[in-house]
# Entry
Amino acid sequence: MSDLRALRLSLRRIRAVFRRHAYLLLASWPRLFELVYWPAVQMLLWGYLTLFLQEQSGLVARASGIFLSAVLLWDTLFRGQLGVAICFLEEMYARHLAHLFVSPLRPFELVIAVFGISFLRVAIGVGGAALLAVPIFGFVLPRALGWALLPYFAVLLMFGWAIGLVIVGLVLRLGLAAENLAWGAIFLVQPISGVYYPVATLPAFLQPIAWCLPSSAIFEGMRAVLVEGRFDTGLLAWALVTLTFWLAGGAVAFVALFRSARRLGLLLQVGE
Amino acid sequence: MIPELARPPRSEPAFASPLAIEVSGLEKRFGGVVAVGGLDFAVPAGRTVALLGPNGAGKTTTIAMLLGLLEPDAGTIRLLGAEMPRARYAVLPRMNFSSPYLDLPLRLTVRQNLLVYADLYGLDDPRGRIAELAAMLDLRDLLDRPTGKLSAGQKTRVHLAKALINEPELLLLDEPTASLDPDSADRLRGHLERWQTARKATILLASHNMGEVERLADEVLLMKNGRLVDRGSPHELLARYGRRTLEEVFLDVARDRHGAR
# Structure
């Protein structure tokens, strides 16, 4: 088989999985609504809190979009991770995963397709909430962060994917009994990442841990843009370095847990 | 040496057929439990072979290892001439699988599910192939209905359509008519027979339905406690055990009634 034909077939397999989840997502109003609902609720909460604090706090008065930017960027990370985990959970709920694994689909093609669906879910959910923020609070996220939004969005989305891969591996290995990890594990990252406050606020022993997370550098960078009006390239570089380790770690963990699940026969009997 | 099965296939003489499945020294343990213990068999291309045995005999474990869903502890597997799992991505496009214990996404329509699998198998003319399968398996009126809204019999036909979408040379079926009423099961067996005759494909099926095995299988592999305890065509087994039905043979094997042989 020529390399070109092999590539074409690989792209079709990726499209097949993307298509399977897009059919499911786009044919269901409740699913679409749920995607926008939570980011919008969070955005409203932090938006009104911002309005209140603008009268009380000098920092918030100087950077009125600080909480709204934070909540939308945090949701990018959260929804990115959730999008990866949900795709696998949908296959497990549907008792469909083994069918995929006995088709010519390679695991890396499945992962790429799932990343694509995760991006679509984030675009709908966070994009919808960001659009709502324009008429309600007069807040335009791209105007607030400028071109820094692009790398910040990309790093947080990919960090979410890395965490998602670890969680998916654990769910494959431990079964649906571990599905709560998909919903809850990411919230361990939130307080350490300094989403709504500087990393310096954390106790001294937690700060080195915080700097191991790409999200900490991104949220610090976001505050630098919004409060000081400067883009900190050093913070972005550090975020990229730590992201590389997290992506590599996520991939290694996924492959190891997937192989372990195959050795134990768990791919055929995924369930509780 | 891997022993071959005795009876020639219905469509071609055995000496003309390459081996579709070669299994040698296959073993799988779960903790201290031997699920499959030293399995050796070979299936020439073009035959329908049934794995028969009581619950826990190792049939599904064997199929899972053939499919690469489960890693053997020991032994070798060659499918369509290629060593598994090393050559799995060369072999998987040429084979397929169906099981009542797995589903297709229930919220997708039948057509959407088949389009997804047409892409997974890289078909050149997905819509044409789906139309062919719909005609062959009486699915035309069901194509735009959600898969979850179908009856058990209809769903089983859709699962078979998925399993045949790539015109596999090797088809693995785990209890293909489980939970079907006799009429639906009979129709499905008819579809399978006609397809196998036309395609001259190899089918390995695990089943508890003796009528199904007698009707479809050229050869039967009798398994118990993870081992092959006997083999032969349905006629040979009936003669060897002095029984009138395969169900009686099955009970002899399941209950260790060796005196009946």
